[in-house]
Amino acid sequence: MDLVELVRQAGVVGAGGAGFPTHVKLNAEAEYLIINAAECEPLLQTDQFLMRERTAELIGGILLAKRQIKATKAVIAVKGKYAQEVACLKETITRLEADIDIHDLQNFYPAGDEQMTVFEVTGRSVPPGGIPLNVGCVVSNVMTMINVFEASQNIPVTDKYVSVLGEVREPRLIKVPLGTPFEACLEAAGGTTISNFCIIRGGPMMGGVVSQEQLAGMTIGKTDGALIVIPADHYLVTRATETETQIINRARACIQCGFCTEQCPRYLIGHPLHPHKMMKAVKYAEEINESHQEALLCCGCGVCEMYSCPMGISPRKVNFYIANKLREKGIRYQHDGSEIIARDGREFRKVPPTRLISRLDLNDYDHQTLREYREVAMDEVFVSLRQHIGAPSQAVVSVGDQVAKGQLIGATPEGQLGSMIHASLAGRVVSVDERQVVIARG
User: Fold this and answer.
1) Can you tell me the distance from the alpha carbon of 209 to that of 201, in angstroms, rounded to the nearest whole number?
2) pLDDT value for 417
3) Strand 32-36, strand 137-141: pairing
4) Reported pTM
5) Which of 121, 55, 43, 120 shows the shortest CA–CA distance to 85?
6) Which of 67, 132, 378, 381 has its CA 20 to 30 A from that of 354?
């Protein structure tokens, strides 16, 4: 069985993003294999731990993927400030005589955005609406490469490393079975230090906000890397809970300063994305049509609204609003084929994470010391069948079945993009529906 099929059977998906099935990425040829090790979002520490503690598996996965896509160059893009992690990588690369380079990334946000990483490593701009493969690159992240290595050993994806930070008594990195409730993750970090809180699922810039009312039923999936506990009245919660009507009404206060565009990462690598023009379209109630298709290029990094805008309004959400209107009309972005050239001054407009953290009022959680690493055992897991881009998996087990850890419990529908799902716990299937499979130990 070749690597692509092993990775497909193991259910490997992008572990740090939207969950794109990795076997599809590996079924290609490219000049570059780039490993995004930048830990893009502020506060997160999961990839740093993996680079220190699972270095050999990471390098092994990179070598396997490099050979599979016939890449001539394999590059780990990592922030130079991660001195200990870089030292671990260099030692293992030397010991294994691996043909892998390390690219020293500057410390800026969003250094870990896929298209930013491609530009930093190669100097090439991915075409608007395109993917890294259009410029000869395949990009993956740290945990995904470890999972690729394990897939080569017939080990499927059943567990997840998660940083639990913020308003918890014992901030720590934990390893949990897929399907572990968020509440169990908080317990593993000593519980919360406040009674009225929300959780950021992922990073503070692009992660979703989970309220206490939504907490029941929320479980860890393949793309989860962090849970950050913050007060329920925090600025980030207030911003996240604005209604569409509120967003549009506030957009009418736009003064057309253009700061959102001048610091937009996609605009700076040459994409024709101008958030201030999208704000103008909403402000003056323009009919949404093909002339607004650039809104579809927004990557949702949040620099425009969380850092650049002096009015405190939401260009990112306006972009999303317009993009949704365009999709409803069946309008897709069409690149005209013109050359993409990065804008002058890009190097001087990169967002420093320290200033970003201050603006987000997250200084109390910056550089939190994580307690000792802990593996969390569960007696019951709630394994979602929707942990990836594409079609949900379809359960292949029934109530009462005994399953072993790693056994297939959800398969990809025939002919569709998706991912296999495996039991993260040995035990008995106690519930099955179109959303999840519940397994109890014993």
Assistant:
1) 6
2) 94
3) parallel
4) 0.95
5) 55
6) 132
